What we know:
Number of domains: 3
Distance between the termini: 11 Å
Largest sheet: 12 strands, mixed
CATH superfamily of the largest domain: P-loop containing nucleotide triphosphate hydrolases
Radius of gyration: 23 Å
Structural class: alpha/beta
Number of strands: 25
Strand content: 15-25%
Number of helices: 19
Amino acid sequence: MENIKIIPKGITLKKVKTDIEIAREAKMLPIEQIAQKIDIPKECLNNYGKYIAKIDFNHIESLKNNPDGKLILVTAINPTPAGEGKTTTSVGLGDALNLIGKKAITCLREPSLGPVFGIKGGAAGGGYAQIVPMENINLHFTGDLHAIGAANNLLAAMIDNHIYWGNELDIDVRRITWKRAVDMNDRALREINVSLGGASNGFPRQDGFNITVASEIMAIFCLSENLEDLTKRIGGIIIGYNRKKEPVYAKDLKAEGALSVLLKDALMPNLVQTLENNPAIIHGGPFANIAHGCNSVIATKTALKMADYVVTEAGFGADLGAEKFFDIKCRKASLKPNAVVLVATIRALKMHGGLPKDKLDKEDVEALKKGLSNLERHIQNIKKYNLPVIVAVNQFSQDTANEINSIKGFCASLGIEAISCNHWADGSAGTKTLAEAVVRVIEKGEANFKPIYEDKLPLIDKIKTVAKEIYRAKDISIDATALNTLDDLQKNGFGNLPICIAKTQYSFSADPSLKGAPEGHILPIREVRLSNGAGFVVVICGDIMTMPGLSKKPSAENIFINKNGEVEGLF
């Protein structure tokens, strides 16, 4: 989900093309030819133009007896403004596995318009490790996120409509927990008042918006096994409480059928291609800092039935994305990952070592060594899940031999292989060595995946386990209201659910300024929310918001259509 410019040695800056220029030069194949590579018949495709198609449920059902391929998770160190290149590495690795003769599919999340027009960027990779057509993917794509937003807001409308027409369910307007959603960064919508303007507009109350990727509908969408499961999960959404403080469900409003109708086409996975004409599936897109950060279960499981190797990613650093991939997605979908690729850049590690961004282009082995604590922490955490890990060093032209040797030597001392990758500049050739190493590791059969906590562990102890084992916090502090919510959830039978911690992506702590590998800190918990349909409990820490705002200079200011009708400024 990043816009990383990795310039190979020997190439001058003036010769380096932008991501969008590279994407426009792509020689894409008709999507039917991409489908043939993974044995999808033409009649099982629902085309969205020449180069995008949805995979029909009938074909997905026909794959159920196929053996599963090997699952590879790509994750990263804590992100910095220097960039890590996780999505780019995922694409490069998928291409490289195909290059060495393996049948591989790359499975990624769909981009949100919020970061596309904000500051973070898109979700199609970069350079010569991209998914195309990148403009379509990074903008409206197949309309999946719009469908999710529409379903979210239909439920919101049905809540207020039910109250307007007599409130048969006795919904307490002070205890409505369901918010509206829009796929845009808009801080002005975090807290709003609705139903103003007189009696004909309903009963005024306080409301608010989440960004669509933080909606429970998105989480349900990504964790559902099929349409039937989707409908059941939607019915289980708790929209608020009645005056007796009893939960009110979406099924009580008879909403689950209509919402499923809005989502039925979106739930089919999206098939696209890489620059090297290899198959890729992009489907679902929850953020990892405020949601569970993984693409859809349907996409991943479908890919595993069609390929020998499936490369997928989890959002942000491994403390968020990988932890939620393991403890939520893999737990819920009974997935067993076979290997983990941990992406790091020397530039980002030097920032974790205390070096400012304007000093990153000069060699500084000492700053790098200090920043390696962040990499080591993530390696240690991944090993707690009994999974083998390989470090992918996403190389920049400014990286020196001393710095590269330093990170490789450090990883070797931990018994971990670190491999330099140049996929931005060289595509699959730049990650061939990584692909070969991943295959070797998987063939050893050392993976013995196990989540970090058991279902039966009380919710408060699950939070403490992640805080102490993954974040290395000394303890947690929790708001009295949040603690009461946890107690109520435990008493009411929700204690077996996994937890989804919403916190800053920039640090192991809840303080984004604490780089490296802080420990002994206190994790502050200010709110707890039940996502009953999705099947997890959201734990909100520190100042994290479920509706982001735009930066002072958002990317939207630089995006326009040129005289040739082409989009400019989009990476």
